[in-house]
């Protein structure tokens, strides 16, 4: 009789092997190779069971569509990203860099929910209960309906849920909770998978919304197995520069709403505050026109954000000039420099070029091309653009200004903020837009 073979599979990329190895041969991840039978819980000689009548498959047209009701969390910017609020029975994963403010945001969500009569259970597995209490006292998040427990064992967490019977559960964080039913240390792939699957099952069975905090790796991706992002309903990323007070939250996955919205917050000494109108956050405060600056209007979801792009050009004795960018795509800046050289006669091959956005916001959409090009032209001529001018448009390699999405929305927002002139695809070619931006000289002359 032939001996049955056992297959092993990588939980990260799906690579298979006939024997167990410590490191995946495809993605090179350590400790992710498991027995396929153990990973799925399926016995090879499984027998079919009789399905109860109430669980029998029915035509999809006979299944009623229940409305998914959102209940507001009390923080408008957070609700905007979630698609209107928190859905009962949903599991939301919030990731971000250490110290960006994830725990502060969720503590504020917990206190707002408790003030509306919701019973909230906050599980802290990274800090002691007294530490979280001190933060809550500083930010004004104390409430009798907000229950706090410092636990790292999954079984104890389930016991706390049975005892408190919360209407909202927050776990900070999923990588620091461990289960005795799974091998490995807390934060390992098997532990994270077991903890997340158990909490999600509790969430669905009790119609209990669960907010999970997730750690990130050095490259910014969520730590743990990729399966974690597939299991949860919503994946949000909390980002921001530690040197500034601005924070942004974006939805990378949302089963109940859009994924192109962005929420703006500001870290203060009293906690975190939402910024409902961030229109002036990414513009300089200078009242005098300065060369090398141009304003564009970015679109994040249904929100228009005016962003000022700044450029600086300097001479250098080095044979290899520097190209330093911040907040914009470096490859697009390199492309725009080539287009300006070939189509507009702006020679910057032997100059240092610095391009940055104001306020620390990141703009990666092609609609910023025209603003970057005009800022470079302004810096090259050392001539300031009119303060009432804004630019939106994508630039092709042929020097053509291409239209971008939501053009009417962008122009309306620019007009609302006092920009009388908006250069867009109607300008035609890049050299025509430069001539319109510098009417006194009619364009950009070579150096």
TrEMBL record:
Alphabetical list of SUPFAM superfamilies matching this protein: P-loop containing nucleoside triphosphate hydrolases, Ribosomal protein S5 domain 2-like
SMART domains, from UniProt? Answer: AAA
Short name of one Pfam family: Zn_ribbon_LapB
Q: RadA KNRFG motif: where is this motif?
A: 253-257
**UniProtKB keywords:** ATP-binding, DNA damage, DNA repair, DNA-binding, Hydrolase, Metal-binding, Nucleotide-binding, Stress response, Zinc, Zinc-finger
Q: Specify the domain of life of the species encoding this protein.
A: Bacteria
Lon-protease-like: annotated span: 352-447
Which CDD domains does the record match to this protein? RadA_SMS_N
Q: What does this protein do?
A: DNA-dependent ATPase involved in processing of recombination intermediates, plays a role in repairing DNA breaks. Stimulates the branch migration of RecA-mediated strand transfer reactions, allowing the 3' invading strand to extend heteroduplex DNA faster. Binds ssDNA in the presence of ADP but not other nucleotides, has ATPase activity that is stimulated by ssDNA and various branched DNA structures, but inhibited by SSB. Does not have RecA's homology-searching function.
Domain characteristics, as noted in the entry: The middle region has homology to RecA with ATPase motifs including the RadA KNRFG motif, while the C-terminus is homologous to Lon protease.
What name goes with this protein?
DNA repair protein RadA
Q: Which gene encodes it?
A: radA
């Amino acid at each position: 009789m032939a001996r049955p073979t056992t297959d092993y599979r990588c939980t990260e990329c799906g690579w298979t092997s006939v024997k167990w190895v410590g490191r995946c041969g495809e993605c090179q991840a350590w400790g992710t190779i498991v027995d396929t039978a153990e990973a799925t819980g399926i016995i090879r000689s499984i027998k079919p069971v009789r399905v109860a009548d109430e669980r029998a498959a029915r035509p999809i047209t006979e299944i009623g569509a229940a409305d998914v009701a959102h209940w507001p969390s009390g923080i408008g910017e957070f609700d905007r990203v979630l698609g209107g609020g928190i859905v009962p029975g949903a599991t939301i994963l919030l990731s971000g860099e250490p110290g960006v403010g994830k725990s502060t945001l969720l503590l504020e969500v917990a206190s707002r929910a408790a003030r509306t009569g919701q019973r909230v259970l906050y599980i802290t597995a990274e800090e002691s209960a007294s530490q979280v209490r001190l933060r809550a006292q500083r930010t004004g998040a104390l409430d009798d309906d907000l229950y706090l427990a410092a636990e790292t064992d999954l079984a104890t967490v389930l016991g706390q849920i049975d005892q408190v019977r919360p209407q909202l559960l927050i776990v900070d964080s999923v990588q620091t909770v461990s289960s005795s039913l799974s091998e490995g240390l807390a934060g390992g792939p098997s532990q994270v998978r077991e903890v997340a699957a158990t909490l999600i099952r509790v969430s669905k069975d009790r119609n209990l919304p669960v907010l999970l905090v997730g750690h990130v790796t050095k490259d910014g991706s969520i730590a743990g197995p990729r399966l974690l992002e597939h299991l949860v309903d919503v994946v949000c990323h909390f980002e921001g520069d530690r040197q500034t007070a601005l924070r942004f939250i974006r939805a990378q996955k949302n089963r109940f709403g859009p994924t192109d919205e962005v929420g703006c917050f500001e870290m203060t000494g009293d906690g975190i505050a939402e910024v409902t109108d961030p229109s002036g956050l990414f513009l300089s405060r200078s009242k005098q026109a300065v060369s090398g600056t141009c304003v564009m209007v970015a679109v994040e979801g249904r929100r228009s954000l005016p962003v000022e792009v700044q450029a600086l050009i300097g001479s250098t004795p080095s044979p290899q000039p520097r190209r330093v960018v911040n907040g914009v795509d470096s490859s697009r800046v390199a492309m725009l420099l080539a287009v300006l050289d070939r189509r507009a006669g702006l020679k910057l091959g032997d100059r240092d070029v610095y391009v940055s956005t104001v306020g620390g916001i990141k703009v990666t959409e092609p609609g910023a091309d025209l603003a970057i090009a005009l800022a470079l032209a302004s810096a090259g001529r050392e001539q300031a653009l009119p303060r009432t001018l804004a630019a939106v448009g994508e630039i092709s390699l042929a020097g053509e200004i291409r239209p971008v999405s939501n053009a009417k929305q962008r122009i309306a927002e620019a007009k609302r903020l006092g920009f009388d002139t908006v250069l867009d695809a109607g300008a035609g070619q890049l050299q025509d837009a430069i001539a319109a931006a510098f009417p006194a000289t009619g364009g950009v002359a070579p150096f």
